[in-house]
Structures are given as structure tokens and as C-alpha cells.
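Dear H.,

Thanks for agreeing to be a second pair of eyes. The structure we're designing against is below in C-alpha cell form, covering all 714 positions.
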């Protein structure tokens, strides 16, 4: 008892008081971590970081109070800091309950047009345990008023405050260093807000986000209308006319984009132990109904998947650092595929079995003009149904049918797969019936890569079978592409022998060659398909497919050119300013002959020519950066293009919205479901996914009553 008293007497010192407040904030944050937030902890290390991450920033915040010497200032300031901490925490708790995401500066200030912040329903989002977020503050103020906690009136030495501040800073730096061990480039790449919270805590996230949005704001504030003029000029001179052979051949068809995670071109037609890695994709590749490209490169930067998406949706490059989606996706205006097609009556939707906040998709998609986003909350991702980045591919395709069939046609639908993602994990039950035996290199990543690529191939095959059975295939153009490399340059030497290459002579050019990814445009019904050797990249996809859909692209700002056009620009720029072209390539400051792969020293004349190519690449990348960093499309109104209003979209009740539209249209409804005489086509879907045999049929979206009513119509 005496001991307890003695311990409590410490609270009567200023340092003791700050320690008490810090402990309380820490406990409250843990309460939020465990009950309200969903941070997706994958391993013990992350768990430990999560437990300790509130401490550093809380200490730093409370050290502010030590700047004030008189007790009647010190205590109110200490409590004010505590209140600030609590408010940040609690607002995020409420916000998370509504949006499954963390609050950003632009959501608080209303700067972003996407989210309107918390609605009037905030009160409905409170829960009984919320009392614990506030009670400590009330009790402490009470204890001070009733003099149970006595104010320490001694004048403090300045160095105490400084020591506390230093302690907090050291802890924070240690925290950042530890986080970087588990998740390199956490702060430069900004994968997901929840990652920063998981690793560094809410306060650090809020400060980080504040700095980022201030930078963005400044960049934008200085931009003027005329800044887009040069870009428009470049756009006009760079434009490539559609080819007469392909223009309009897919007019009014549905567009189905299959985003094949980390799939690289070297798997196509590759055999391992006598068996093809991707037998189905190979058959598609060779099929007369497919335009297949074998010199197609990804062009992503640090934003990986999200950069690939941006390249395809907008035909602009990702940013030099970080992900375009996370940095400017919430605020920018875009002229993106879903919006362009939306003007022609297309319905647009994304299907992806990961959290909506990953890569800031939940906000960015609205600015791209996506009407529907079926994220992890629309699927059952429990237990063995998911791996690291979400729902397994076979299940993603299978479980999406109930949503896909409700889309009014024509639609523009994108499926983002995840299973073939580093570190290429798959449960043994998913491979036990497979006769495919992978490589036996010393690198488990290389070996596993082929296993998950093989799995992805089968998933696509099952989906295709459904597309044919349901009749969707004949009304659709299916675009398949690999988003970026799966095996990085550090694994490439281990891969070399599998590709029949010598790891000892492996060089920068070889790495660049491996940045080829599959790109196929499959148009069931045509027999004009062929293997096309044109050099191109992700930047070129949008103009290419828009032309095939019979849509004129001249008025849009696009940095890519139609792959089928005679005027196509076959210099492929990488995000780091390296480039490849049919004749020459420039990789890491070295020129290579693209045919022989040999490095060479150009003579003066050729050097000048190559410099010009480099200048062109630099100009294009910098125009694209300025367009996106300064949000210049806000100054440009292409004739006939209706600007996107992100506020129109709400991804919470997609299926209810679709059902409503279907009902309102009655027999004019063009959804597959309506065409199938108001019956689901789910039964047509055949998959060997073992997870389905022990399925509970639950989706993560618990509160969606409409979903239940729609699935009962089956
Ligand atoms: C996450 C998935 C993976 O949702 O798309 O992104 P990546 O790590 O490949 O950029
Ligand atoms: Mn990816």
C-alpha cells in the first residue's frame, strides 16, 4: 500500500505527470488498435512495432509543456497536448468505422473533393467502449481540481524538457529504422495509410500526411493556366492516328481488363520440367483471336501496381517518387478510361480482393470516374481464402460473378489479381492436385514464382470458361497484362540459369529485357490476331484500346501512342529515364545494341542522335510529372468531355445501386443477369478451388442487407 502511495506521489512531479499521461494515451491507442482499427498484422515483429509505436510521438508532444515554466501554464499545456492526442485518436476511430481508412489532412480540411469527411451519422458510429477514450482526461482534471494530484510548482530546468524531447526523438528514429527493416521504403512509397499507422503510429502518420499535403498544395498553388500549353502542343505533335485495320473493331463491346500481378513475359511459352508454366495464357497468346505483343514493357516506378493502373487508365506516367495514386489521387482531375468510356454509356467497375485503402484506391478511383469498386469488403477473405495481398485469384474471379452479372452492358471492368505477388505464397492445398513441378534453384522466390504464376494461369482459364459459357466472351474485348516484374534484379541472376543464360555475364541490359510483361488484346470472334513485335509499354494501352473501341483520342492528353498506328512511338521510357527501342537501348548510362545486347560506344554522330532520344524521354516524363504534380488538367476542358464529379460515387453499397438500376430499367436492362431471364449465372462457374468446399459463404461486408437479398435471388 505504501509502495503504491509512493508510486502515486511521483505523479505530483511534472515528469511523473507526463509519464502518467503518456501511459494513458498509449493504453487508449492500443484499445483503438485492438478493437477499432484493422491494421493487418502479419508477423510478430509488426505486432511489437504496433505495440510500441504510440510512445515516441506522445513523449515528443508532451515535451512541449516543458517550454512553459510556471505551473499554471505547464499543466494546462500538458493537458492540451493530451487532448490533442486524444482528439486525433478518436476522430480516426470514428472515421475508420465509417470509411475503413484513416483521416487525412485533405479530408479534415475538405480540400479533397472525394471524401466529404464525417457525415451527420457520426453519432451513430459511437460505441459504448468509447467512454474509455475520454474518461481518463475527465478523471485527471477532477483529481487536479480536488488536489489529489498536486501541481509541482518548482521551477524546472530547461534541460529536463530537452532530455524528454530527445528521448522521444531517439525512440521515433529507432521506430522508423525498425519499420524500414520490415517494410523498406515505407515513407517514400506510401503503400497504404494503414501501413504507416501500423508501423509508426497515428501521430506520425498525421504529421507525415500534413507535410505531404502541404507540399502538394504549394506545387499546385504556383501553377497557372498557361502551364498546360506546352503539354498540349507536345500532345498534338505526338499524336498517332488510329490504324485502319484495328480502328473500331471492338466498338460497343464490353472491356474486361485482367491485371495479372507480377507476370513477366518470360513465363509465356516457358516449359519447366517438360510442362508449360502458363498453358492457358500460351494458348491465348497463339490464338488467332488475340493480338499478342512480345516487346511490351512495364514502366512503373515505386508505385508498382498503382503506377501500372495509372499508366493504363490515363496514359500518363507515375511520379518520380512514391505512388501517383497515394500522392495526388485524392485531389487530381484525370481524363481516365472509366470517365472517357462513361460518356459513351459504359458502366465501370473494379474487382480486387484487398483493402480499398491500399494504394489509396478508394479515393483515386472516384477521380478516375469508376462507378463501382468491389474491394475486400465485398468478399469473404477469411482463413485460407486469402494470401498476403488478399483474396486468392481463383476465388476473386469466382466470387465476382454475382457482381459482374449485374453490371449494365457495355461495361469496362477491371480484375486485379494478387496471388502471384512476392513472396509468392500459396497453401499446399492449392497445389496438391497440380502435376506442375517447379524449378529447383537455390532461390525459393524463383521456385515459388512459377508455382503462383501457374496458379494464376489456371484462375484465368476458369474465368475464361465462364466468359464463354455465360455468353459474355462474344460481346467482350479482353485485355490481359502483367503489371510489373515479380522477380527483382537481385533475383535475376538466380533466374538466369532457368532462362538458359549465364549468371556470370548477367548485366543491366539483361535486367532491362526482363521488364517485358505480357500484353494481349483478345477479341473473341476475330481471326485477325497475330504476334506483334512492336516496341511499346503500358503508356500506350489507353490510346490503343480506345481506338479499337472506335473512340477518338485526339483531344485527350495522353503520352502513349496507339501500338497499331504507323506513327506509333517505339521508344519505351522507363520511370528512371532509361529507355529501350527496337534498335538501341540506354540502360544505367550505357548504350546497348537492342538486337545483340552488346554495350557500345557510339561515334559522335550517333551519340548526338541518342542524346536526342534521351531528351525526348526526359521531356515526356517531365511534362507528365508537371501535369500530375500541378494538377494541370483542371485547366483543360476537352470539348465534349464531362468532368468527373467524384462525389457522385459511393462504393459502400455497389450491389444495391446495381439492383436499383436493373429494376428501374426493367426489360431494357442489359445486365447479364437480366439477359439470363433474371437468373444468376453463378452456377455456370466451374473452379477447382479447394477453399470452396469448406466455405461459409460469408462476405466481409456485414452491414450490407442488399447483398443478402441479391444472393437469395440465385
Ligand atoms: C495490392 C496489390 C499489390 O492491392 O495490388 O500491389 P503491388 O505491391 O504489386 O504494388
Ligand atoms: Mn503489382
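And this is the sequence the design step returned. I haven't edited it by hand at all.
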Amino acid at each position: 500500500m505504501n509502495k503504491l502511495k509512493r508510486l502515486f506521489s511521483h505523479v505530483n512531479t511534472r515528469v511523473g505527470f507526463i509519464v502518467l499521461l503518456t501511459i494513458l494515451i498509449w493504453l487508449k491507442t492500443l484499445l483503438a488498435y485492438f478493437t477499432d482499427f484493422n491494421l493487418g498484422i502479419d508477423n510478430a515483429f509488426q505486432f511489437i512495432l504496433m505495440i510500441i509505436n504510440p510512445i515516441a510521438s506522445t513523449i515528443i508532444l508532451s515535451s512541449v509543456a516543458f517550454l512553459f515554466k510556471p505551473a499554471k501554464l505547464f499543466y494546462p499545456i500538458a493537458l492540451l497536448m493530451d487532448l490533442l492526442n486524444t482528439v486525433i485518436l478518436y476522430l480516426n476511430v470514428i472515421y475508420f468505422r465509417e470509411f475503413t481508412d484513416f483521416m487525412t489532412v485533405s479530408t479534415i480540411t475538405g480540400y479533397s473533393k472525394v471524401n466529404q469527411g464525417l457525415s451527420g451519422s457520426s453519432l451513430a458510429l459511437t460505441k459504448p467502449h468509447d467512454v474509455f477514450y475520454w474518461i481518463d482526461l475527465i478523471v485527471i482534471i477532477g483529481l487536479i481540481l480536488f488536489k489529489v494530484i498536486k501541481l509541482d510548482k518548482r521551477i524546472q530546468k530547461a534541460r529536463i524538457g530537452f532530455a524528454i524531447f530527445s528521448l522521444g526523438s531517439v525512440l521515433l528514429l529507432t521506430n522508423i529504422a525498425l519499420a524500414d527493416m520490415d517494410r523498406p521504403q515505407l515513407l517514400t512509397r506510401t503503400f497504404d495509410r494503414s501501413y504507416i499507422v501500423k508501423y509508426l503510429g497515428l501521430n506520425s502518420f498525421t504529421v507525415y500526411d500534413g507535410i505531404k499535403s502541404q507540399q502538394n498544395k504549394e506545387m499546385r498553388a504556383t501553377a497557372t493556366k498557361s502551364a498546360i500549353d506546352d503539354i498540349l502542343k507536345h500532345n498534338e505533335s505526338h499524336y498517332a492516328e488510329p490504324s485502319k485495320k484495328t480502328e473500331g473493331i471492338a466498338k460497343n463491346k464490353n472491356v474486361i481488363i485482367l491485371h495479372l500481378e507480377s507476370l513477366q513475359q518470360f513465363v509465356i511459352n516457358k516449359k519447366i520440367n517438360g510442362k508449360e508454366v502458363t498453358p492457358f495464357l500460351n494458348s491465348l497468346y497463339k490464338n488467332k483471336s488475340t493480338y499478342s505483343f512480345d516487346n511490351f514493357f512495364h514502366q512503373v516506378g515505386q508505385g508498382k501496381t498503382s503506377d501500372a493502373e495509372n499508366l493504363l487508365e490515363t496514359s500518363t506516367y507515375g511520379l518520380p517518387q512514391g505512388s501517383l495514386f497515394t500522392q495526388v489521387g485524392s485531389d487530381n482531375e484525370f481524363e481516365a478510361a472509366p470517365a472517357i468510356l462513361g460518356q459513351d454509356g459504359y458502366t465501370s467497375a473494379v474487382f480486387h480482393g484487398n483493402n480499398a485503402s491500399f494504394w489509396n484506391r478508394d479515393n483515386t478511383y472516384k477521380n478516375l470516374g469508376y462507378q463501382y469498386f468491389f474491394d475486400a469488403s465485398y468478399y469473404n477473405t477469411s482463413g485460407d481464402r486469402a494470401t498476403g495481398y488478399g483474396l486468392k485469384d481463383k476465388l476473386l474471379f469466382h466470387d465476382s460473378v454475382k457482381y459482374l452479372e449485374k453490371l449494365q452492358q457495355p461495361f469496362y471492368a477491371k480484375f486485379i489479381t494478387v496471388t502471384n505477388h512476392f513472396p509468392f505464397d500459396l497453401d499446399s492445398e492449392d497445389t496438391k492436385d497440380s502435376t506442375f513441378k517447379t524449378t529447383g534453384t537455390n532461390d525459393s522466390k524463383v521456385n515459388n514464382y512459377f508455382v503462383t504464376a501457374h496458379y494464376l494461369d489456371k484462375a484465368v482459364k476458369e474465368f475464361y470458361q465462364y466468359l464463354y459459357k455465360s455468353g459474355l466472351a462474344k460481346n467482350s474485348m479482353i485485355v490481359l497484362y502483367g503489371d510489373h516484374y515479380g522477380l527483382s534484379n537481385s533475383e535475376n541472376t538466380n533466374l538466369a540459369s532457368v532462362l538458359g543464360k549465364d549468371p556470370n555475364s548477367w548485366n543491366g541490359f539483361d535486367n532491362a529485357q526482363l521488364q517485358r510483361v505480357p500484353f494481349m488484346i483478345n477479341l473473341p470472334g476475330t481471326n485477325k490476331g497475330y504476334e506483334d513485335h512492336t516496341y511499346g509499354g503500358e503508356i500506350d494501352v489507353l490510346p490503343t484500346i480506345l481506338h479499337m473501341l472506335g473512340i477518338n483520342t485526339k483531344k485527350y492528353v495522353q503520352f502513349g501512342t496507339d501500338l497499331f498506328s504507323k506513327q506509333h512511338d517505339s521508344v519505351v521510357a522507363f520511370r528512371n529515364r532509361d529507355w529501350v527501342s527496337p534498335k538501341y537501348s540506354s540502360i544505367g548510362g550505357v548504350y546497348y545494341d537492342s538486337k545483340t545486347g552488346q554495350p557500345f560506344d557510339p561515334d559522335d554522330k550517333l551519340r548526338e542522335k541518342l542524346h536526342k532520344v534521351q531528351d525526348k524521354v526526359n521531356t515526356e516524363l517531365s511534362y507528365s510529372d508537371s501535369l500530375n504534380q500541378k494538377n494541370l488538367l483542371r485547366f483543360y476542358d476537352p470539348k465534349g468531355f464531362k468532368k468527373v464529379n467524384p462525389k457522385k460515387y459511393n462504393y459502400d453499397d455497389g450491389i444495391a445501386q446495381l439492383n436499383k438500376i436493373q429494376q428501374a430499367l426493367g426489360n431494357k436492362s442489359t445486365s447479364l443477369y437480366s439477359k439470363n431471364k433474371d437468373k444468376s449465372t453463378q452456377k455456370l462457374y466451374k473452379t477447382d478451388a479447394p477453399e470452396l468446399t469448406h466455405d461459409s459463404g460469408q462476405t466481409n461486408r456485414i452491414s450490407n442487407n442488399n447483398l443478402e437479398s441479391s444472393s437469395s435471388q440465385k
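Two observations from my side: The longest helix spans residues 71-99. Confidence is low (pLDDT under 50) at residues 111-117, 702-714.

Warmly,
E.
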